[in-house]
Every structure is written in C-alpha cells, then in structure tokens.
C-alpha cells in the first residue's frame, strides 16, 4: 500500500544526509533552519556573497539560491539574468573530494559540468564556482602539522583529505572577493591510527579559518563535544566561549533529533551564528526530547568550572552553589584507579590470588582474582569498602536517561580494572551504601549529565555534584527540599533522568 504523502522523502539530499556519521551530509530542512539565523535582507541584496568552504551535497548553495531567486526578482525581473547573476556572482564553494564536487555541481547547477548545455547558468569552465583546489598535507614526522592526519593512514589514499580551506588555500584570493557569509557543515574528524581506533577532530579548524577571514556572518553545524573540551579542543573551546560575536547557538543533545535516526553523533550536534558586529550575551536554544528552550545568556556561568548546557538547569545550579559545599568529585578516582588496564583480567581461581578484581562484564561474568603484589597503585584502597561505577555509559536512545550505570559495592580485598571508576573509599559498609543511595538519586545523576556529553564519565563530570553527609542515606525528596527546588525545576530533572532501582 502506498505510504501517505507526509511519509515520503522525495528530496535526494534528504536521503543522502542519512548515509554517514563521519562526513555528515546536511538535510535541506536543517540547512534552511541555519539560513533562518541570518538577516533575511541578505537574500534581497544583489551584492551579498556566500561561500561554502566544505561542499558535500551542495545543499547550502542550493537553498541560498532558492531564497535569492525570490528576493532578487524586483532587481532582476528577467529570470535568466537573475539566475546568471546569482550563480556567477553570489554563490561560491570549495568541495572536499572529487565525488562531492560532482554532486555539489549537479545539485547547484543541475549538471555536474557547469559549462554544459544543461547548466542552469552557463559558465566558461566545467567547475563553475564550485572548485576542488589542489592541496596537500604538510607532514612533520608522522603527522600533518595542520590537521593532524596520520602519514600512515592518508599518504597513499586516492583521496588525501587535505582539505583546501584549512591547508593554505585562501578562497578570497582564489575567487578575488570578500565574502559576506561563510556557511557549511565541515568534516568532523580524521583517523589518526591505521586501525581507526583513534580520531582527531578537525571541524574546529574550519570554524577558526572562517572566523579568521572576518566575514559578516559565519554559520556552521558541528559536533557539540567542544562544549566540554576533548582531544585537541581546549583552545577552540576557550576561544568560542569568550567570543562575544557568537550571536546564536542551537544545540541538540541528541543528534538524531537534528539529522534523523540514522546519524548518531556522540555528544550531540549544534549549529551557530557568528556575527562580526554582535556583542554581548548569546541566544542559546536547547532542542531535546522535551521540546525547545531558548534564553539569552552569557555562555559561561560565573564561578562554575564547566559549561551548563541546558538553560533550565541554570537556576538549579545556582541554588546548589549557594550552599558552598565541596564537590563530590573529590571522592572520585582518576582513570585506572589501581593502575590496571582493561587487558588485566585476573584468574578464575583463588590459588595464590588473594584479591578479587572487578573487570568488564562484557568479558566475563565469572569472579576473577589477582595477587595483591600485582596491584601496582593504591594498595591502601584494597582493604577498604569501595563504591564502583562504570567509567563509560551510553544511552542516547533511552530518553529519559540513566546518565550513569548502576553503582555497586566492592568489598575489602578487592580492586578493579579501568573499566570502572571508584566513587570513594570507605572504612565501613554503611557509609558506602549511603553513598550509593546518593548516586542512585535523579538529583545526583542529573548534575552529572550536565557535564557528560559523551558516554565517557571521568572524574570531571562529577564536579557539579555537591558533597553530602553520608552518615545517612539520601532520597530525591530530601535533596529537592534541601536545595529549595521548585515544582518546575523538579519536573525538569525528572523529565531528563529516569529513576534507578536498587
């Protein structure tokens, strides 16, 4: 039976947008939402110029062209003259590969050859204004010193992925003009090992280059992992949060709400509008399964070591901080609490192995043991009670969230591999159990969620959690009352975090 009209997906660019998690193609609806952030009089200005420095499908240039075709009708009543002006004097792009160059030209010019008979506007060259300038990595040892690409991985590839925009090719020089708008969806990362076990983010390099060109507007869609830093992103994070020219950020905690269910970007996705003459607070818009929340605010909360992603959480954080309590993170161990990697699995028998080792349940459900002498670090913890929790926990498909795996008690004469993190070491069992009662509360796990953008849960994600008196057990009702939370604040916490049973 034929599907209803609303279920159809007739736009090939919508289909193409669902194909990849690495170089993600932008759906037209998302491209248009990004264009909506710009002053709309740009699309009535015959002198406005637009650059996509990382063309893949050509969707941004296509959607810009649609708006200009309508907006410039009073200026160019003749349709063909209008099209010629738009495509030849206003729209420009750098493709990222040979394939995407053809796809983008087909999308924008209605043919992959801009000098062909079927081009919507006839150029003298087959490339038109969508170029693939030759560029090369700049090798320094085993890495490209510009993008961090691995010589081993990329030197022998047909496509080197030495993207022109970030490898020394200046579009203002190539096209001989200053751009008003730079817009795009850059590649997110490059593998930096031959087994694809590690990747270096590069989207930040595209944003930095775009801002350095100082156009009137930059609009880009990028992973939101930069909110909490990450590999090679500390300087980028600092630059962005302190740049008052950031006018708007639209944040999707779950990237599937933006791109669709086929594309899952760890840490979520965001797009932003940087405006050269903007100063002051930023319009920050949360899009979650609960709906949309928008407010105008400074991006960094005074006195908080970390970015508060959810607008509705700000009032909760302020109430917690008013009490000036120490952070629970003081109890939390570093990675590898006992210096043991995940490769250390211990033995199934206790012969000459007097310490139980907790390892990943994905490896074995059997009890495992290790000799005390083989525990390289923090042997003083071995004979005390410990609260353990998985260091990684991901569940973006399970809204509302647990945020953390279930904590559990590790008895004296025990240790763990780096699969787990230690949430405190205690002299008696009752205190450890009281700590676990706190960890299980929605209040505790909500505060963790605020700093936990990926499945990884190191010590830093516990910074916002306040310390409690662990001579007693804790419930959410007691914590809500202690911090004076309103019904609305409680409802928000409970809409984001599901209860955790004992």
Give an overview of the whole structure.
- It comes from Candidatus Spyradenecus faecavium.
- Its EC number is 2.1.1.72.
- The structure is a single chain.
- The chain is of the alpha/beta class and 502 residues long.
- The protein is built from 16 helices and 19 strands.
- The strands form five sheets. It has a nine-stranded mixed β-sheet with strand order 3-2-1-6-9-11-10-12-13, sandwiched between helices.
- A hairpin with a 2-residue loop joins strand 12 and strand 13 (291-297).
- Helix 2 (28-35) packs across helix 3 (59-71).
- The longest helix has 13 residues, at 59-71.
- It is elongated, with a radius of gyration of 26 Å.
Can you tag this structure with a few keywords?
502 residues; alpha/beta; nine-stranded mixed sheet; three-stranded mixed sheet; 26% helix; disordered N terminus; S-adenosyl-L-methionine
Largest sheet: 9 strands, mixed
| Gyration radius, rounded | 26 Å
Instruction: Look at the structure and give the mean pLDDT.
Output: 91
Query: What is the overall silhouette?
Result: elongated
Total strand count, please?
19
Give the helix tally: 16
Q: What is the strand content?
A: 15-25%
Give the spatial strand order of the biggest sheet.
3-2-1-6-9-11-10-12-13
Percent helix range: 25-40%
Uncertain residue ranges: 1-8, 15-21
End-to-end distance, in Å? Answer: 48 Å
Topology:
Elements: H1 12-16, H2 28-35, E1 50-55, H3 59-71, H4 79-89, E2 91-95, H5 98-109, E3 130-131, E4 139-140, E5 143-144, H6 151-154, H7 171-175, E6 181-184, E7 189-191, E8 199-201, H8 203-212, E9 217-223, H9 234-241, E10 246-252, H10 256-259, E11 269-275, E12 282-288, E13 291-297, H11 314-321, E14 355-358, E15 368-370, H12 379-382, E16 385-390, E17 408-410, E18 414-416, E19 420-426, H13 429-440, H14 442-449, H15 476-482, H16 487-496
Parallel strand pairs: 1-2, 1-6, 2-3, 6-9, 10-12, 14-18
Antiparallel strand pairs: 4-5, 7-8, 9-11, 10-11, 12-13, 14-15, 16-17, 16-19
Helix pairs in contact: 2-3
């Amino acid at each position: 039976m034929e599907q209803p009209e609303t279920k159809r997906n007739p736009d090939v660019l919508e289909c193409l947008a669902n194909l990849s998690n690495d170089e993600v193609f932008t759906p037209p609806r998302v491209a248009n939402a990004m264009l909506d952030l710009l002053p709309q009089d740009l699309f009535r200005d015959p002198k406005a110029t637009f650059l996509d420095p990382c063309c893949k499908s050509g969707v941004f240039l296509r959607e810009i062209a649609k708006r200009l075709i309508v907006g410039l009708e009073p200026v160019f009543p003749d349709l063909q003259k209008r099209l010629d002006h738009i495509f030849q004097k206003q729209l420009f792009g750098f493709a990222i590969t040979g394939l995407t160059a053809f796809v983008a030209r087909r999308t924008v010019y209605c043919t992959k050859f801009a000098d062909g008979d079927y081009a919507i506007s006839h150029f003298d060259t087959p490339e038109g204004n969508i170029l693939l300038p030759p560029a090369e990595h700049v090798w320094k040892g085993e890495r490209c010193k510009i993008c961090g690409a691995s010589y081993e991985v990329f030197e022998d590839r047909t496509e080197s992925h030495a993207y022109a925009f970030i490898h020394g090719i200046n579009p203002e020089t190539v096209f001989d003009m200053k751009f008003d708008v730079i817009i795009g969806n850059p590649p997110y990362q490059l593998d930096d090992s031959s087994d694809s076990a590690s990747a270096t983010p590069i989207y930040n390099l595209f944003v930095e280059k775009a801002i350095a060109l100082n156009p009137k507007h930059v609009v880009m869609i990028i992973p939101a992992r930069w909110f909490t830093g990450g590999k090679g992103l500390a300087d980028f994070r600092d630059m962005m949060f302190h740049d008052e020219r950031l006018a708007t950020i639209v944040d999707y905690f779950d990237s599937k709400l933006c791109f669709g269910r086929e594309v899952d970007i760890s840490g979520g996705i965001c797009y932003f509008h940087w405006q050269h003459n903007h100063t002051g607070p930023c319009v920050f818009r949360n899009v979650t399964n609960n709906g949309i929340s928008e407010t105008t605010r400074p991006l960094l909360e005074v006195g908080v070591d970390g970015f508060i992603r959810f607008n509705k959480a700000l009032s909760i954080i302020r109430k917690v901080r008013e009490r000036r309590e120490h952070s629970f993170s003081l109890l939390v161990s570093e990675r590898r609490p006992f210096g043991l990697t995940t490769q250390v699995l211990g033995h199934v028998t206790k012969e000459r192995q007097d310490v139980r080792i907790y390892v990943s349940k994905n490896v074995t459900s059997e009890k495992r043991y290790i000799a005390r002498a083989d525990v390289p670090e923090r042997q003083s913890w071995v004979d005390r009670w410990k609260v353990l929790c998985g260091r990684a926990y991901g569940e973006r498909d399970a809204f509302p969230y647990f945020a953390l795996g279930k904590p559990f008690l590790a008895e004296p004469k025990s240790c763990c591999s780096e699969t787990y993190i230690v949430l405190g070491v205690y002299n008696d069992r009752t205190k450890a159990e009281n700590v676990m009662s706190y960890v299980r509360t929605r209040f505790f796990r909500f505060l963790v969620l605020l700093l936990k953008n990926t499945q990884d849960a190191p010590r830093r994600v516990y910074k916002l959690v306040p310390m409690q008196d662990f001579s007693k057990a804790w419930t959410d009702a007691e914590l809500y009352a202690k911090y004076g939370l309103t019904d609305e604040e409680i409802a928000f916490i409970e809409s984001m975090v599901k209860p955790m049973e004992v």
